[in-house]
From TrEMBL:
PANTHER family linked to this entry: TUMOR PROTEIN D52 (PTHR19307), TUMOR PROTEIN D53 (PTHR19307:SF8)
InterPro entries per the UniProt record, alphabetical: TPD52
Record bears the keyword Coiled coil: yes
Keywords of this entry: Coiled coil
Organism lineage: Eukaryota, Metazoa, Chordata, Craniata, Vertebrata
Region (Disordered) residue spans: 1-21
Short name of any one Pfam family annotated for the protein: TPD52
Coiled-coil intervals: 29-63
Annotated family: Belongs to the TPD52 family.
The protein, known as: TPD52 like 1
Length: 144
């Protein structure tokens, strides 16, 4: 009997099978008619309170929308403000600053490299142009 009584007082959480057993159990046979009536009354009262709270919340949400409209605040403005605030927060982080510096430095190096490649290509085209002009003009000069 002592082991059975101790089993009722266990504080370990229910396992999946235990939860299914409890959910499918019919406790109504263990309740007196008076307790059943009290629980039914409490159930009705809780349902009424939940309905009232939903109505109050809905009214407050409508009032919130009205106030925002009067202040000229709409969804797009809020999104813009949130985005601006978030972007500012990102820009002030150390990681962002370091990344920005690294990318800026890499961009400068890439620009210099492209400039050097462009200069080299221009020089090659210039040399080729001179070579072509020279090879075309030399036979013409020899004929004279």
């Amino acid at each position: 009997m002592e082991a059975q009584a101790r089993g009722l007082l266990e504080t370990e959480p229910l396992q999946g099978r235990d939860e299914d057993t409890v959910a499918s159990a019919d406790f109504s046979s263990m309740l007196s008619e008076e307790e059943k009536e009290e629980l039914k009354a409490e159930l009705v009262q809780l349902e009424d309170e939940i309905t009232t709270l939903r109505q109050v919340l809905s009214a407050k949400e409508r009032h919130l929308v009205e106030i925002k409209q009067k202040l000229g605040m709409n969804l797009m403005n809020e999104l813009k403000q949130n985005f601006s605030r978030s972007w500012h927060d990102v820009q002030t982080t150390t990681a962002y600053k370091k990344t920005q510096e690294t990318l800026s430095h890499a961009g400068q190096k890439a620009t210099a490299a492209f400039s050097n490649v462009g200069t080299a290509i221009s020089k090659k085209f210039g040399d080729m142009s001179y070579s072509i002009r020279h090879s075309i003009s030399m036979p013409a000069m020899r004929r004279k």
